[in-house]
Design brief:
single chain; 201 residues; Rossmann fold; 8 helices; globular
Length: 201
């Protein structure tokens, strides 16, 4: 079984790196959209994870649960801890099925009892800002503000639910700067490292 969990700073291209890793290994890839699809298969609405990494205090349960799970009634409210529990169920289901590359969502923590390769993809701020400007059509100032806001949101979310430190080397098997080798080269480097570590067959 091969499970690779990829954390990433905003603008680093970590999602693309994860997608490239999955393509090269020929295994399923799960980003926010595909995790939402998996949530549907487990009886949840896609909207459950639509706001995924944004900190919101309450959500309308009737909007998120389509199959009467957890006996929630119309108009009830579910806090973010319950949503994280639901998210964990979905990611556990993905991990237990076998091979997968999973992007974000605290998957490294949720699947900590399984044999996984945990990676964090980062890059220099200038490199990330330039990528964001190009991808989002923003000015340099706008891109920097978006980068900092997204990073802060991801850090807050990860640290709260994992009791760890987002982006801190001690939480991962490998931290890599995607600006050095590019998307494809970084993916190949991760695969080589995983095989040398015995975490990728």
């Amino acid at each position: 079984m091969c499970i690779i969990n990829v954390g990433r700073s905003f603008g680093s291209g970590g999602g693309y790196v994860g997608q490239a890793v999955a393509a090269k290994l020929g295994i399923p890839f799960y980003d926010n959209e595909l995790i939402s699809k998996a949530a549907e298969e487990n009886g949840y609405s896609r909207d459950l994870f639509a706001s995924g990494e944004r900190k919101r205090s309450i959500f309308s349960a009737s909007s998120f649960f389509t199959s009467g799970r957890m006996n929630l009634t119309e108009g009830a409210y579910v806090n973010e801890d319950l949503l994280f529990k639901a998210q964990s169920e979905v990611i556990r289901s993905i991990g237990e099925k076998g091979n997968a590359v999973i992007i974000g969502r605290c998957a490294d923590y949720i699947l900590r009892d399984l044999s996984c390769l945990n990676v964090f993809v980062d890059g220099p701020e200038k490199y990330r800002i330039e990528r964001i400007m190009k991808a989002e059509g923003l000015t340099e100032s706008e891109a920097e503000k978006l980068m900092r806001r997204k990073d802060r949101t991801r850090e807050t979310y990860y640290n709260y639910y994992t009791f760890g430190q987002w982006g801190h080397a001690s939480n991962y098997h490998l931290c890599v700067d995607s600006s050095i080798l590019g998307i494809d080269g970084t993916a190949e480097y991760i695969i080589d490292f995983g095989r040398r570590a015995g975490l990728i067959p």
